[in-house]
Amino acid sequence: MTGSRREDQGDLAAGDFSSWVIGMQGAIRGEHGAEVPCDGCTACCTSSQFIHIGPDETDALSHIPAELVFPAPRLPRGHVVLGYDERGHCPMLIDGRCSIYEHRPRTCRTYDCRIFPATAVEVDDGRKAQIARQARRWSFALPTQADRDRQHAVRAAVRFLGRRKTVESDGGAALSPPQLAVRAIEIHDAFLGSGEKADRAPLVAHQRRR
Ligand code: SF4
């Protein structure tokens, strides 16, 4: 998530699939932020998203007015979420730029809308149409067999998770599309070697969080 705005036209180079997905696994593990060439896109800051902030994120919390955060549902005490205004905009987005960019929450640092084209998971929330548009613009390069194998493995992981429908670690709740995409990327190594057949199987409809 980042700064100012630009037109959403044309294809965007998402990079080689293997490099991206391995880097994304590191970002999910919290080893580093996601390096997204947003180029001024603010779709994820203007799409009615609740931003989770953990109790350890003291820097971010010290830069966000206390009245803008509230306890995160179903998470232990200390976890909060930053809401959005009546337009669906993050209140920290001022004049089209993140006003706390150097201090933004971990959720923002690790958000990467390339998870959707990488997994072929659709953004099916009408309030996130801007993210869906931006996500459709990305195009991954698959120059090597390793890139193609990784892509097949990610798609196989999506199908596996779709069949399970719920995840015990989330209290048995159904996965939202972003959660499904992130978890598929997390676990896809287990599906390396599953081959291209996994790609041709019908995609199991992902489940919405109730
Ligand atoms: S904190 Fe900054 S980067 Fe995060 S959603 Fe708000 S404006 Fe965007």
Describe the protein:
The protein is an alpha+beta fold and 210 residues long. The protein has one domain (12-200). The model is unreliable at 2-8 and 201-210 (pLDDT under 50). The radius of gyration is 17 Å and the shape is globular. Helix content is 34%, strand content 10%. The strands form three sheets. A three-stranded antiparallel β-sheet has the order 2-4-3. Strands 1-7 form a two-stranded parallel sheet. α1 (17-28) crosses α6 and α6 crosses α7. It contains eight helices and seven strands, in the order βαβαββββαααβααα. β5 and β6 form a beta hairpin. The protein has helices at 17-28, 58-62, 106-110, 115-119, 129-137, 145-164, 177-187, 197-200, and strands at residues 12-16, 51-53, 69-71, 80-82, 93-94, 97-98, 138-141. Residues 1, 45, 51, 90, 92-93, 98, 100, 104-105, 108 line the site of iron/sulfur cluster.
Short overview:
By secondary structure, this protein is an alpha+beta fold. It is built from eight helices and seven strands; from the N terminus they run βαβαββββαααβααα.
Characteristic terms for this protein:
210 residues; 3-stranded antiparallel beta sheet; two-stranded parallel ribbon; 8 helices; globular; disordered C terminus; binds iron/sulfur cluster
Largest sheet: 3 strands, antiparallel
Query: How far apart are the termini?
Result: 26 Å
Give a count of the beta strands, DSSP E runs of length 2 or more. Answer: 7
Low-confidence stretches: 2-8, 201-210
How much helical structure, as a percent, in the residues? 25-40%
Roughly what fraction of the amino acids lie in strands? 5-15%
